[in-house]
C-alpha cells in the first residue's frame, strides 16, 4: 500500500474514532434528546439554507428542547415560547454567557465588550453600572430630547440644501450620518462627521463590512481546529477593518482626554466619554478596577 493509501486509511480511522468518542460523550452528558449527526460535520448538512424550517421539523421529532451538533459544538435549541421563557427569564443566570464567534474574537476586545463579555466578568459589571447610573437613566434620556431635535433639524436642513442645489441626495447615507451624529453627540458631545463629507460614506461602508463579516457563517466557529488557518479569511478582514475603526475612535478619544472639559451649563456635557474618563480617574484609586479606551469602543 502506498503512502497515499495509508494516509487515507488514517483519516478514515480518525473519523471513526472521533465519531465513537463523540457518541459516548454525548450519551454520558445530561443533555436534551437530539440528533447526533455525522462525524465532524454533525447536523450542519441537515440544517441547510433555511435553518428555521429545518429546526421546526426536528422539533416535531425531538421536542421543544433538543440537542444538536453543529460541527464539533453541542448546541441546545429551544423552539417554543415556554422553553424560551424558561431560558431567558427563569434560568437567565445559568445562560448568561454566550459563545464568541471567531470574527468577534479576531478583534481581541470581546472581554471588554458589553455585548460579548460574560455576565460573570467583573469588568462587565462595572461597565453595566456606568450605563445604569450615568447613561440610561430617565433624567439622562430626557436631557437628550433637545439633542434629538437638533440632529433632526440638521438633517432637514441638509435635505433643503440639496434640493435647492439640485444635487442628488442618498437617503441611506443621510440617515446613517444622522444616527451617527446623534450617537457621537451622546458619547463625545460633538458631531463626528459633516453631512456633506465623504467620511460618512467611508464609515458606513466600514460598519457595513464589519456587520456582514460578523453575521457570515464561519466554518472555523464549528470546527475549532481550523481557527489558526482562517480558511475563509474572515478573521483577517475583521482585524483590518477594526484597526481602521479603532484608529478613528482613538483620535476622537485622544482629543476628548486632552480637553477634558465639563461645562455644568451644557446639558449634553455628561457624555459617555466623560463617564469613561471619570471612571478611569477613579480606577487609579482602586487597583482592582481597570477601565481603558477599549470601553468606549
From TrEMBL:
Localization (cell): Membrane
Protein source organism: Sesamum angolense
Signal peptide (residue range): none
Primary localization class, coarse: membrane
The protein's name: Geraniol 8-hydroxylase
Recorded GO MF terms: heme binding; iron ion binding; monooxygenase activity; oxidoreductase activity, acting on paired donors, with incorporation or reduction of molecular oxygen
Top-level taxon of origin: Eukaryota
Membrane topology: Single-pass membrane protein
One GO CC term on file: membrane
UniProt keyword list: Oxidoreductase
